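Possible race condition, two jobs.
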Amino acid sequence: MSFARIAVLGGGAWGTALAQTCARAGRAVMLWEHDAANAASLIEARESRFLPGVRLDARIGVTRELAEAAQAEAILLVVPAQALRSVATALAGVIAERTPLIVCAKGIERGTHRFMSEIIAEGAPAAVPAILSGPSFAADVARGMPTAVTLAAADGALAAALAEAIGSATFRPYHSTDVRGVEIGGAAKNVLAIASGIVTGRGLGASASAALTTRGFAELVRFGRAFGARPETLTGLSGLGDLVLTCSSPQSRNFSLGVALGKGLAPAEAQQQSKLAEGAFTAAALVEMARARGVEMPISTAVDAVLDGRLSVEQAIESLLTRPLRAED
């Protein structure tokens, strides 16, 4: 399990950044991009339109042919969560059996309530699902800034081998077998980051931001516990670590979406400005799944109601501040 040849599907900012770090790890990398204009930029200018100023490593090839990328020994899927099923299904007919598919999206599929690993199992059943998640911004990773993440697969030896294959001096993947815990942390924190952005956009102060992040983490833990996540995963890089990062920086698309909402933009207009904010798509699924398991998630529920137009930002804030006082859990 040396994984000398790795493919990265998706030439956006995060896909380009991960291709860079795989190349730094000494792997031969094939970067697949479906968008013609961005593919042309990657091939001709050796630069993604979504990550300007970062020149592709010479070891990275670029293709628009999925079958060519599918020849790799391991594949990183860096496509939006809601597009994962279509890409996995397309891969099913061209990959070798037992090829690791490492999902780098953070979300839950709307309608089906499927986690990312479940989508891989359904769309590409011959593949082996894995999850990469943690506190990381594309610009930092692409430029070689120190970053630590979690890579999970059900097989511990495979998770360790994959982490070894893509790790480098500045990109440190810790490995885990808690696939569900890693994907829950990534999905839930995006919704909570929207709430944190609303607090900042509304100018409610640092104390409110700290309270929101802390109580949001309590929601993430309750949800994770209900779906079988390990406590140490939720308090690790892919849970608490990622939550802290995305609840505190405008580099986070989800946080920026919340800031726009907090400043008074209508949900449709705010989402138009932050098209790739995964939390906007995950919120409804997260809340519906929590409700079905009897998990109390008032912050996430308020975010879903604001995004859906059922509550204004003011009403959502009031609904949280007027909740009955209770013991801290």
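Job #2 (started ~2 s after job #1):
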Amino acid sequence: MLGRLSRSPIRPIQIGRKLIRAMDSGRTTGADGRSTAPNTFTVQLHEEDRAALSDLEKALIAELTDAAKQYAKDEGFSLVGDVVVTIATDASLKPGKFEVQAAVKAGQRLDAGLSEAASASPHSVQRSPEAPPAAGTQSVSPAPGVPPAPAPSSPVVPVTPPTVATPSIPSVPVPAAAPPEKKAVLVLGDGTKVAVKPGVLSIGRSAESSVPLNDTNVSRRHAEIRSRGDGARIEWFLSDVGSTNGTMLNGVKIGGEQKLKNGDALMFGGTSARFEVS
């Protein structure tokens, strides 16, 4: 179905490829070495494009959901919940343009137990029977017309409420202005510029790569550029992911993860590139 044409200039297969790239770039690797990928996706379209795809929308959502599940299975990614794909309208987009937002959202579990509030039933106050007079004594009855004297009552001790200290309210610190965020770009040999966004940028011959390269010397999954930190402290690292012809950094073939800096020269198979930071 993703290969089917529609009345919109946007083809369903383009949405599928961009969703897979968003899934790949949004994955994270835990301490156990397992990769967790996004499972919630929102496809944002201009209202004209969404109207043109309206007759395919339900089938498109089902196909995109299956494609994301299959890709996670093929790549060995872990998902924290069910794959959910939604289509929304974004008036800020131009006709023919679309965006795919990916996020990790854990599934919700419903608790089966219900708590009942126990209601306290009032207790009736029972009087203890009067003790009979001791042997050898006589009970004295009050004189007719004279009310009996009231029984002496126990003194009531007032209850003093506990003293509660008023907590002090700490002052709210004023946050300092955040330093400017650093931005990186990958300039390919033909002059094409690819923004290196926070997360994972995959490079390879596969159409699902963040940077697909039409080069027979490039492996399907060739290399990755990962970011660490954020804002002015963000850093980028290059690693080869088991390519056939290897990855070069400033003319040297890398064997592990290497930190990137502004102006570094990269080579993926037979394709050259330059890493720039501003």
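The two ends are 42 Å apart (CA to CA).
Logs attached separately.
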